[in-house]
Amino acid sequence: MEMVTIYLMGKKYEVPSNLTIMKAMEYAGYQLLRGCGCRNGFCGACTTIYRIKGETELKVCLACSTQVEDGMYIATLPYFPLVKQVYDIEKVKPTEQIMMQLYPEIYACIGCNACTKRCTQGLNVMQYIAYAQRGEFEKCAEESFDCVMCGCCSSGCPAGISHPQVAMLARRLTGKYIAPNCEHLDIRVEEIARGDFKATMEALMQKPLEELKELYNNREIEK
Amino acid sequence: MYHNPEILESLKKVEATRQERFANKDNIARMTADEKDAILKAYHPDYKEENFVNLTVGVNKGDKVPHELAAYLQAHSRIKGKKIDLTKPAYDVDVLVIGGGGAGSSAAIEAHEAGANVMIVTKLRIGDANSMMAEGGIQAADKPNDSPAIHYIDVMGGGHFANKPELVHKLVTEAPDAIQWLNHLGVEFDKTEDGTMVTTHGGGTSRKRMHACKDYSGAEIMRTLRDEVLNRGIPVVEFTSAIELIKDTEGKIAGAVLMNMETEEIMVARAKCVVIATGGAGRMHYQNFPTSNHYGATADGLVLGYRAGAKLLYADTLQYHPTGAAFPEQILGALVTEKVRSLGAQLVNKNGVAYIHPLETRDVNASGIIRECSDRDNGVDTGTGKAVWLDTPMIEMIGGEGTIMKRIPAMHRMFAKYGIDIRKEPILVYPTLHYQNGGLEISPNGMTGIPNLFVAGEAVGGIHGRNRLMGNSLLDIIVFGRNAGKESAKAAKDVKLAKLTLSHVAKYEKELKEAGVDTKLVSPKLLPNYARNRKDI
Lengths: 223, 537
Ligand SMILES: Cc1cc2nc3c(=O)[nH]c(=O)nc-3n(C[C@H](O)[C@H](O)[C@H](O)COP(=O)(O)OP(=O)(O)OC[C@H]3O[C@@H](n4cnc5c(N)ncnc54)[C@H](O)[C@@H]3O)c2cc1C
Ligand code: FES
Hints:
The complex is a heterodimer of chains A (223) and B (537).
Chain A: E1 3-8, E2 11-16, H1 21-28, E3 47-52, E4 59-62, E5 72-76, H2 96-102, H3 114-118, H4 125-133, H5 137-144, H6 152-155, H7 163-178, H8 183-194, H9 198-206, H10 209-217
Parallel strand pairs in A: 1-5
Antiparallel strand pairs in A: 1-2, 3-4, 3-5
Chain B: H1 5-23, H2 33-43, E1 52-54, E2 64-66, H3 67-73, E3 76-77, E4 91-98, H4 102-113, E5 118-121, H5 130-133, E6 138-139, H6 148-158, H7 165-173, H8 175-185, E7 199-200, E8 210-211, H9 217-231, E9 236-237, E10 240-248, E11 253-260, E12 266-276, H10 300-307, E13 312-313, E14 318-325, H11 339-342, E15 346-348, H12 362-373, E16 380-381, E17 386-391, H13 393-399, H14 403-407, H15 409-416, E18 427-436, E19 439-441, E20 453-455, E21 460-461, H16 472-492, E22 500-501, H17 503-514, E23 522-523
Parallel strand pairs in B: 3-23, 4-5, 4-12, 5-9, 12-20, 19-21
Antiparallel strand pairs in B: 1-2, 6-8, 7-8, 10-11, 10-22, 11-12, 13-19, 14-18, 15-17, 16-17, 17-18
Bound molecules: flavin-adenine dinucleotide (FAD) and FE2/S2 (inorganic) cluster.
């Protein structure tokens, strides 16, 4: 087994080179409580800062999906204080004003691009903030869609922007107000409310097992 | 990029047969009902009798469950020997929701909407949950060629007809409304320009009714629900677990004992109704399988409910997702969404043969992989075990270049981190412990046999029978989560709590002793123990 040297909160450990940072911590003997959720890059719980010995750059990553490297100095950031503004989704409207009202700090962006550089998902964060500034919520939503809200972007922002929360608002506005309405869904909800399927469903529930099996085994499958 | 010579040799065979497989892709036969039965009996982990034991204590005495679950169901209470003052609750609410996943959040939102004083306690953070990880999508029969009846037949057949019909009825008839509710909350479903939902097949579906939000379906739903919970100001107590339920002297549910995960402080939450929404059990690692589940998936809700006298249904059936990542080792067990197969990737053995239809139900496909990798000896040796190929480059042959980045970006990212480009290279897969089919039994109103104790989400048993179809779980957490929220808020209006008691816990301890159960384990498990050199107590 090839081993590498890493430093967890400054303390030195030898761990197998093929582990993720998260598994390396457990290998070192940590029983994780914080900073561990999905263990596979979806929840953003495991934000971590590291620097490779001899390099100057501080990097951020998700501990669950980053492999250890020799000489890694690792510090976990299990909680990042993002600012989340409260609003009523039924009352807000997808206009530029809403961003101005809830997240005015986005207009203080100085274009340093620190957010984009730090994104653990490789998203163009500064670009989606620019879209939000201009009220182009659909574009902001698309650009930010893969965000896991880990907060790495915000940890380096001189303007104090909570990027993931801005994007969250943009996505909800897009999903609710901007994306085209789904007509076949509305129709089906209405049909059900009207009771159109009631008789069929009740009959189906009364069917003896053998008959139901027949129906299942001979059902037509859409190509 | 693969380096291992044995893997590379097999990879060549997969590439050599790809064109021909592509040309014949619509001609792979589906298995007959008898063939399916036979392969399940021979290879599915649920049929490995030696891995199950019969319970000796509690309402399900005599029923078989995985022995790891039995050990935790028949373990000591975490509050054994502790003095707990039930007269000074730290929290006093109408509805206590245990678990901040999709089911818990939906329940909390609806209970709040109905005017109840509701709170959520959750073990990690709100959203650190299986719900956040769902990739593939959510089913609902909302297209003209589909109907709740067709959906019903698919669910029943997929569940081997063991499902509770009245729960399936609710699931399928309220599905379109659940999608609409999410959409109105701002969830961004994949749609065409005119608003038509982009839908695909899942294993075992007879209509294309899988709605998705790229391959971040669960994340998109979960983060939206979380945002809504926070907007409503519903209190969320994080890093806090429920470790025991509390009843009143009349036998009604009356709250829960909570534990701060960091300080281990014990607190009492008094509640007129409780909703268990604690999710699944992947981190129990039944039969030593790796798992796709989040860190907190340890069957806690089943333990809490069982000790309080609620009945389990089908706790012996687990879902092993056929395509868990088998390589590289860093992501062993991580889920490769079924959508990869919906979009056309075939399951191919080490000789380059597409040995099965890729969209058989999950249990059948998992059994098929286990058969290739055992008796048939057609598995590829990955260094940590055997696996078969999932031929992802076919997706772009079928759907056109760019399909992968557009439809399954998370999958691309997960492998790209380790130097594998799934657009050009296939991936290695083996079944992973994925979903708890069984759980606590409920009536259509969401209540267990214990007055005012509700359950929603993966902790419920009976909705999916003995096997759940992809996309019906995200659906059930919304349908039954909302339902539990509404019903508990309604029930709470008429509840007068008598004196609080933990006598059921003492009674259970006594039964353990009488049954001769000799154990040092305490439960619920709360978290798996992955720290090297530490022993589980
Ligand atoms: C990787 C993956 C992919 C999936 N893909 C799909 C899909 O495409 N389609 C589909 O329909 N389904 C899918 N599923 C299944 C589906 O996502 C889950 O079954 C569903 O989301 C479960 O929701 P839940 O709210 O019941 O549980 P969870 O979302 O797991 O939430 C349970 C919550 O309760 C907390 N908790 C647990 N114990 C306690 C305790 N003692 N005290 C306090 N809190 C506690 C947990 O930490 C967690 O936050 C997938 C599952 C996984 C793991
Ligand atoms: S633990 Fe969820 S992203 Fe790392």
